[in-house]
Amino acid sequence: MAGVRQFDESKALEQAMEVFWQKGFAATSMQELAAATGVQRGSLYNAYGDKETLFLRVFELYRERFLLQIRESLEKPKAPDALRSLFEHLIASMTLPVASPASTRGCLSTKTAVATEDMEEPIRQAIQSLLDGFERILVERLSRMEEGAQLRLPAPEAARLIVTLTRGIVVMERVYRDPKRLRRTADALIDLLVDTPARARG
């Protein structure tokens, strides 16, 4: 059973998040987490019970922050600009260097999903909750199109397509390490999804 925290939990969770984000859940050991947080391994076990529980607490913090940033990135009044802002935020986040300039941070949720064999149900549910929240925010924004602009798909279908593409560009970033390529892909999707008066006149 988890015990009382004898350390600064908010600081420890931030430090643990960086380790999980860099290495992924499966490849991270409790010893590495103890070294990164400055908290003895026994104290981590006492506080959280096991690595999975600690990860789920970290992921809860990550999910809250991720969805807030998604909502903020979509606040621009015109849908194409809002979607470009969204992709720019996601691409900037996943291409941050870690450990060395040759290594980038990627996406914690996607890295966990693809790199964890026999994923435990609580972890799968946590990732699904993040993706479902992402999709709901997109549906809300895409349901408020500016005058003259038209979405070529129903908002739920467009939102699901966007979420799916964001998972794919994480993989493409790992392979190509080319943010410009990712932006071109995002722009192509936006052009396919949103019809604007300017494009109609053209």
UniProtKB/TrEMBL annotation:
SUPFAM superfamilies: Homeodomain-like, Tetracyclin repressor-like, C-terminal domain. InterPro entries: Homeodomain-like_sf (IPR009057), HTH_TetR (IPR001647), Tet_transcr_reg_TetR-rel_C_sf (IPR036271), TetR_C (IPR011075). Pfam families: TetR_C_13, TetR_N. Residues 6-66 form the HTH tetR-type domain. Residues 29-48 bind DNA. Gene3D superfamilies: Homeodomain-like, Tetracycline Repressor, domain 2. GO terms for molecular function: DNA binding. The keyword Phosphoprotein does not apply. Keywords: DNA-binding, Transcription, Transcription regulation. This is TetR family transcriptional regulator.
